[in-house]
Amino acid sequence: MTWDQQNPYQQNPYQQNPYQQGYNGHAHGPYAGQQQYAQQRYPDHTYTPAPDQTAPLPLVEPEPGPGPELKPEPEPVPQSDATATAAAGETAVGRRSARRNGRAQPAAPGTGGTDAKDADPDQRPKPPARDRYFDTLRAVALIRVVTYHTFGWAWCGMVFPSMGIMFGLAGTLMAKSLERPAVKVVKSRLRRLLPPFWFWGFFVVLAMLIHDWLPGWQIVYWIVPLGDPPGNAWGEQAWEILWYLRTYLWFVLLSPALLWVFRKAPVPVLLGSLAPILVLNFVWSGPDNRFGSALWDLSTYLFCWILGFAHRDGVLQRMKPALVVVGSLAALGYGGWYAFSHQADFGTYDLDENPLAQAFWSAGFVLLLMWAKAYFEIDFAWLTRFKKLDRTVTVFNARAVTIYLWHEIALILAVPLIDRMWDVPAFEKWLPLDSQWFMFGVGWILIAVFVLLCGWVEDVAGKKKPKLLP
């Protein structure tokens, strides 16, 4: 049984669309599965990269920052009952306001807090817990990516636009991190992203060299993926997912300037971030090379990244609910209409093959998710009551880069593994070896193996003690 038989989404009937062609047939629309530089949308971003993203993503997630600095506090000044009550009320209001703005606030002296010098080590303030709402979104996004790559269902992107969500989460984390010096933040992101990429790339490049690949100078993109890393057709299914890492890397490098511009005029910049994809789609399609491919992907997800800034800075929370809902529905309506009305041009309504439809659908979808988080203060704290589910979400977030990079290789290896099962009469009789769902299950087993074998690289990249599981 061949991979093509198992995976119908590899076929590409819309190869000739003028907006899809890039460097040597390189497709701007994701998952085009074409020639040497085929561009694929969903490896999700997954991908990668919120106050918890693959992760950068992100994919790679920053460690929780240290809690407020503990200093000895002066002896409380005696005060009347009325004064104490008023002070406590003001402190409570301040803490509620801080929580609404996404910032933790230590307890004030004399309002129930404990002086650091007298506190038991186990009772001292700890860093705030991760945001399980964003963690859950990232985990679901990764599951959706693997599902799409297994079954190739065109409707997956409309049900849950994983890559737009991943970029939105990454943008929120980046805005938070840029409260520190920009150079340190960029260096930290590169340190977390590149080592797992190099580790994975070593095996992919070595395998392609064994299978008669003769690289040119473009092999430097396997060191820093500012452009699509090259490869041969034999390894295409493995390396075509790298468009997400390349796009994420460019967003990281551009974020200090983007955030500065955004804070000058938040709403106009947010709305204007949809202009580049409109220009590329209707006015100028960009150069037909690696730069042009990167330009399409940046333009497609720019709104989602800037939306992350808006969430972090409280812009969404201050917007009127009616305006947000109308704007979201308008973006979803236009994206959906464009996808279905241009099926003849792209051969499908799959958002991964239609950058303009992807941009607007993701914009509307992610806007609702981010606004709901800010306005209703959703945190999914209830998730901690379900230990196994909470643990799964934790592992997905701590190993987001590993899952993203290795999931396609896991699906590739699932095919010959299932082929060998046909030689065992008991397996042939009792197992659904010809089912895509069975391959989906085998793929996840292999992904779990890669997480155990390779996930420690993410710990090393994050300057943590290597572990089999976080």
Write the layout of secondary structure elements.
Elements: H1 3-6, H2 81-100, H3 132-151, H4 156-159, H5 162-177, H6 182-210, H7 236-239, H8 243-264, H9 266-272, H10 275-282, H11 290-312, H12 315-318, H13 321-341, H14 343-346, H15 355-376, H16 387-398, H17 400-421, H18 425-430, H19 436-454, H20 456-461
**Helix-strand topology string:** HHHHHHHHHHHHHHHHHHHH
Distance N to C terminus = 36 Å
Structural class: mainly alpha
| Radius of gyration (Å) | 24 Å
What is the overall shape? Answer: globular
Question: Approximately how much helix is present in the residues?
Answer: 55-70%
What does this molecule look like?
The protein is an all-alpha fold and 470 residues long. Helices cover 58% and strands 0% of the residues.
Note the main attributes of this structure:
470 residues; mainly alpha; 20 helices; 58% helix; globular; disordered N terminus
